[in-house]
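Data availability (excerpt). The following record was deposited with the supplementary files.
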Amino acid sequence: MSVERIQQQFRDSAALTLEALDTLAVPIAAAVDTLFSALANGSKILVCGNGASAADAQRFAAALIGRFERERPGLPAVALTTDSSILTAIGNDFAFEQIFSNQVRALGHAGDVLLAISSSGNCVNVLAAVQEAHEREMVAIALTGDGGGAMTDVLADTDIHICVPSERTARIHEIHLLTIHCLCDGIDAMLLGED
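Predicted structure:
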């Protein structure tokens, strides 16, 4: 393995992080405000995604229920990616495309927020979850990349789109993780004050 190749990965990641700084700061701040408002009003956050985005969904829910960097009471969040019995039952009895939307239908209420993660913006089951969230009068926050894909057509005017300006899946996931950290930090800052 070439050291130069490894160093280039770091350079590419750093360059996209700096580029995304200007593009994403405003929608991330809006997302923090939306999430905090929902939590302050007794609502919950539902989170979904596939593959690496499923891991991001779980990381986000864990940081809210447990803690991010500071001690605080747990906050209500559910990663819709974690219950293998639910996922396989819905996938088998209905369709894989419904594994998240059926859970949003069962668990979501007006005032809740759906954090929908899809690096391409084209995951059919994530898009269906956003549509179901709208049926439940929930706001959706979408984390995408590569231009946003089909997600751009599904989101409502009241939703928030955080679209990473890259086509490279690995880079998109890196910025998604940083965005999740920003969301968690922002919620904590609003709850606990700046540290």
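Summary of structural features: The domain at 3-192 is CATH 3.40.50.10490 (Rossmann fold).
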